Amino acid sequence: MAFATFKHEIIFKLVLSFAIFHTVIAGDADITSDFIVPPNVTNIDSNFFTFTGMRILLQAPPPTAFKVSKASLAEFPALNGQSVSFAVLQYPAGSINPRHTHPHSAELLFLLDGALEVGFVNTTNKLFTRTLPAGDMFVFPKGLVHYQFNRDAKNSAIAISAFGSANAGIISVPTTVFNTGIDDGI
Ligand SMILES: *[C@@H]1O[C@H](CO)[C@@H](O)[C@H](O)[C@H]1NC(C)=O
Ligand SMILES: *[C@@H]1O[C@H](CO)[C@@H](O)[C@H](O)[C@H]1NC(C)=O
Question: pLDDT digit string (tens) for 94-106?
Fold first, then answer.
């Protein structure tokens, strides 16, 4: 009887740990159709595959605080099952995108303008940091805590980030959790 209970407990823990493991490392599931049509959409044409939500960025005045504009599953339903998404990241002078992780995807950042300090911490708490000039790319490995900081007091920076998931997800990391050598300000 006690043994059976013990066995159940072990199985339960195993199932739970696999569930957690799966949540942490999961990317997008493969799909077996060309694309996924949302239930409320009946007429599919090229409009479905077009995202116009970034047009406003070209006309809008630059933001006064760090701003992220996403083209992910929520904004662009055609990405469902395609394992890709984008974000446009705008950093006014001195602004920061504070520590966070994307549980479902790596992030490949391409700095278009300005200079940007980037960093991530691996699972054994080693900090990798670098200041990028415009034109450089940096990859934040999947699931690792990272940040970007525009240290320049006068000039803004702009980057685009590609993700290997339609829904990379975001988890903010409270500054009290890690002691990694990242500046307190960050
Ligand atoms: C389908 O539903 C989504 C989510 O409710 C909504 O954002 C979208 O505008 C709808 N699309 C159409 C064509 O009605
Ligand atoms: C984190 O980086 C350090 C330094 O390169 C390395 O020694 C360590 O093995 C890394 N940890 C993992 C889990 O990769």
Answer: 999 999 999 889 9
For residue 71, the cross-strand partners are 86
Distances (CA, A) of 166 to 37, 59, 104, 118, 141: 15, 26, 9, 23, 16
Atom of ligand 2 at shortest range from CA of 123: 13
Cα–Cα distances (Å) from 176 to 100, 150, 172, 180, 186, in that order, read 13, 22, 12, 10, 12
Residue closest via CA to ligand 1's atom 8 equals 40
Any ligand 2 atom below 6 A from CB of 179:
no
Cα 165 to Cα 42, 121, 178: the distances in Å are 25, 21, 26
pTM of the complete model: 0.80
Domain boundaries defined on the chain = 46-172
Ligand 2 proximity of 59 Cβ (cutoff 6 Å): no
Domain 46-172 grouped into CATH 2.60.120.10: yes
Q: Is 124 in the pocket of ligand 1 (CB under 6 A)?
A: no
On the question of pLDDT at 186 being above 70, the answer is no
Cβ of 181 less than 6 Å from ligand 1? no
Would you call 16 exposed, middle or buried from its count of C-beta atoms within 10 A (0-12, 13-18, 19+)?
A: exposed
User: What would the pLDDT profile of 67-88 be if each residue is shown by its tens digit?
Assistant: 999 999 999 999 999 999 999 9
